[in-house]
């Protein structure tokens, strides 16, 4: 059974897409114990902004089929094979209308869950990059997932939004997806020279560790943006970057969820 992990935060700019490509890449580099094969990883971009699609080197407007067709038209997932060792389902601006179309769609809560069912056994990990909102696309992603992974920027304003985020997870767990679990929290864009970042990180560690594991913070670094501009994971762009050790610890934690 695959782990379906949605990266979710209603705030934008917290690093969801960056984490999706980098965590997916490191998961795909791991081999399960006593096997010769690496983990099979599928990334899904369900954000109309299509940041992850661009990071993967795919022009959204060039794709005839995207996640929109799977969710709205109930077609098979349009899976692009073997990009940096991962499979990928792209997004496009068509998703901007999907929120309105899903309002009146039959079985809307389960549209993504049903789309994943035919392929879920083909993968060990499916990572879903959610929109920065609490709309229907995020909701159906939570319904379809086994776990939710929460990136949180180490800024006080971003930390304040976690209560609303956790309330949304609780609402999904109350009925449509009672088995949904929190995979953890990842502090992002951390600057150890900034006292506000230090205070916010401490608050995240103290308060959210009661809900789920709080991983080591991802440092603020222009290398992530540079790697994304080159359409590659950070490990390919800069194999010696210090943030790689933190990313590897996180994927080891995700591996334990299997």
Describe the structure.
The termini are close together. The protein is globular. Helix content is 40%, strand content 15%. The chain has 258 residues and is an alpha/beta fold. The mean pLDDT is 95. The protein has a single domain, classed as P-loop containing nucleotide triphosphate hydrolases (Rossmann fold, 3-Layer(aba) Sandwich), CATH 3.40.50.300. InterPro entries: AAA_dom (IPR025669), DNA_Partitioning_ATPase (IPR050678), P-loop_NTPase (IPR027417). Residues 4-182 form the AAA domain. This is Cobyrinic acid a,c-diamide synthase. Belongs to the ParA family.
What does this entry show, briefly?
By secondary structure, the protein is of the alpha/beta class. It contains twelve helices and seven strands. Strand 3 and strand 4 form a beta hairpin.
Element layout with pairings:
Layout (H helix, E strand, L loop, with lengths): L2 E5 L8 H14 L11 E5 L5 H5 L11 H5 L8 E4 L2 E4 L8 H6 L7 H6 L8 E5 L6 H9 L2 E7 L2 H5 L1 H13 L6 E8 L6 H14 L13 H8 L4 H4 L5 H13 L3
Parallel strand pairs: 1-5, 1-6, 2-4, 2-5, 6-7
Antiparallel strand pairs: 3-4
Helix pairs in contact: 1-12
